[in-house]
Automatic annotation (TrEMBL):
Name by which UniProt lists this protein: Family 1 extracellular solute-binding protein
Lineage: superkingdom: Bacteria
Record Pfam families: SBP_bac_1
Keywords: Signal
Signal peptide bounds: 1-28
Residue span of region Disordered: 30-51
Organism: Paenibacillus mucilaginosus 3016
PANTHER family according to UniProt: ARABINOSE-BINDING PROTEIN-RELATED (PTHR43649)
Low complexity bias locations: 30-50
């Protein structure tokens, strides 16, 4: 076996065991050491040509058009040759691990929330730059992501990255108003009434095709949030504060009530049997085809212009409206105030290349504010958008700028962005954003060393599915918690969360 082949085999084996980043980290790197700012002192030497910057992001390489006007403008404005290296979302973390192992990380890195274990490994193995000495050079980024954005990027007390500005995901229940009208039903206001309407949608042929081919409720696995929220808790393993004390939803006494509520609907046969495997695209398609009359989803998956057009083509009378919060429901979803959409990090090796490091910092600032931000939000001025007073209005060529989100490296001001991009849905977005939500703080909690959050969450998800579907009895719930604590040392994670959130001042 030649050397290259042997290395490939070794990497594959280590990736499978999740050990690649740590096993191949450079021994000389010391994450505890605070480097001097690269740009401190003398100005860095300047290259004769543009400075090449490559960023690894998750995304489809085909998403960027051949005529990439964003890259062209960034390159010209900043004197760089910027390349987005996009990898399919499922393979992104593995690719980063391989690049880290070969000490060949690109100049900018995006790590998605689901891959944070890779971020923690890279930070703790000295592969990422501590941004603390450079924070005064990231003024526009700080305006975009806030102080909390950098707090979320801390690992063992050091700022190895920052979180992009948070997104708004205003989920809720949506209902077919035309079906309510056809069956002579009122809009449900309680969980009991919701169940009765769901039964009617399942059994009374609301689409009038003479077939029993509809369901009451559809959605994705996240529909659990709607049922659990009706009883004051939310998705399993979420941290929130009650009466000044930190609570994990798994240990909230209301969790059992929420499980029983979900079971009540499932046993009634009114829930889409594919609910736990549906993707958002499945829900969008089922809504358009009139598969069910109630959906738990956010506006973008149901009432964007193209979705409404498709639904109206099948049934011109179809009308989906947002269901107000039901009586007694303390929340319809959670909002993670520590939410991490993705972490943006810079490799430690750039402190030895001050010219490139300065250009990277300049790039991050440019896309966070002013002309650069508008470029990556909406496209080119007077081509894809124009100013009408203080308001930005998109032009008929707005479709050419549909890919610019890939260059939103630090995120975007979500509500202003949505109001500008989706004027027909603006009222619904505001209405759904105003529904009651439970603040959770998981984004601030970094799993302690030796605790595998991915494996623990996988176990929790599998066991909760058994409870929802009635394959496990609610009476066995406490035994499930005991197994979680014994198998995964879960209390260490709870103690770390309490310590972290007390340190941040959220818990007294």
């Amino acid at each position: 076996m030649n050397n290259k082949r042997w290395v490939r085999v070794l990497m594959g084996t280590m990736l499978t065991s999740g050990l690649l980043v740590s096993a191949c980290a450079p021994k000389a790197a010391d994450p505890a050491a605070t480097p001097e700012p690269a740009a401190k002192g003398a100005e860095p030497a300047k290259s004769a040509g543009p400075v090449s910057i490559t960023m690894a992001r998750a995304g489809s390489p085909s998403a960027i058009p051949k005529e990439d006007f964003v890259k062209k403008e960034l390159d010209a404005k900043l004197g760089i040759n910027f390349k987005l290296d996009l990898t399919d979302d499922k393979e992104h973390a593995n690719k980063l691990s391989v690049l880290a192992a070969s000490q060949n990380l690109p100049d900018l890195i995006e790590i998605k929330e689901k891959d944070l274990s890779v971020y923690y490994q890279m930070a703790r193995n000295g592969l990422l730059l501590d941004l603390t000495p450079y924070l005064d050079k990231l003024g526009s980024v700080k305006k975009q992501v806030g102080e909390e954005g950098f707090t979320k990027g801390k690992v063992d007390g050091k700022v190895f990255g920052f979180s992009q500005a948070p997104r708004i995901v205003p989920q809720g229940f949506w209902i077919r108003k035309d079906w309510l009208d056809k069956l002579g039903l009122k809009t449900p206001t309680t969980m009991d009434e919701l169940l009765e309407v769901a039964k009617a949608f399942t059994e009374k042929d609301p689409d009038g095709n003479g077939k029993k081919d509809t369901y009451g409720i559809s959605g994705t696995r996240e529909t659990e949030r709607g049922f659990l929220g009706a009883h004051g808790t939310t998705e399993p393993n979420k941290f929130y504060i009650q009466d000044g004390k930190l609570v994990n939803s798994l240990y909230d006494p209301n969790m059992k009530k929420g499980i029983e509520e979900f079971q009540r609907f499932l046993k009634a046969g009114v829930v889409d049997p594919e609910l736990f495997t549906n993707k958002v695209t499945d829900v969008t398609d089922k809504a358009a085809k009139g598969f069910a009359g109630i959906f738990y989803e956010q506006w973008a998956g149901l009432v964007r212009d193209e979705h409404v057009k498709k639904m109206k083509e099948i049934n011109p009378k179809a009308e989906l409206v947002l269901l107000p919060a039901l009586q007694g429901a303390k929340n319809v979803r959670f909002n993670d105030v520590g939410q991490i959409t993705a972490i943006i990090a810079i490799p430690k090796k750039l402190e030895k290349d001050p010219e490139k490091l300065n250009k990277v910092l300049e790039l991050l600032n440019y896309v966070s504010e002013g002309d650069g931000a508008n470029l990556v939000y909406y496209g080119q001025k007077d081509v894809h958008w124009k100013k009408e007073g203080d308001k930005i209005v998109l032009t008929e060529k707005k479709g050419e700028a549909s890919y610019t989100w890939l260059y939103q490296l630090t995120g975007r001001p979500e509500m202003d962005y949505l109001m500008t991009k989706f004027p027909p849905q603006a009222a619904l977005i505001k209405e759904s954003s105003a529904l009651p939500e439970l603040k959770v703080y998981n984004g601030f909690v970094i799993p302690p060393k030796g605790f595998n959050i991915t494996d623990a969450n996988r176990f929790i998800g599998e066991e909760m599915l058994k409870f929802y579907t009635g394959k496990a009895k609610v009476e066995d719930y406490d035994a499930f918690l005991a197994s979680l604590e014994k198998t995964f040392n879960f209390k260490v994670y709870l103690e770390e969360a309490d310590k972290t959130l007390k340190g941040l001042g959220y818990v007294k």
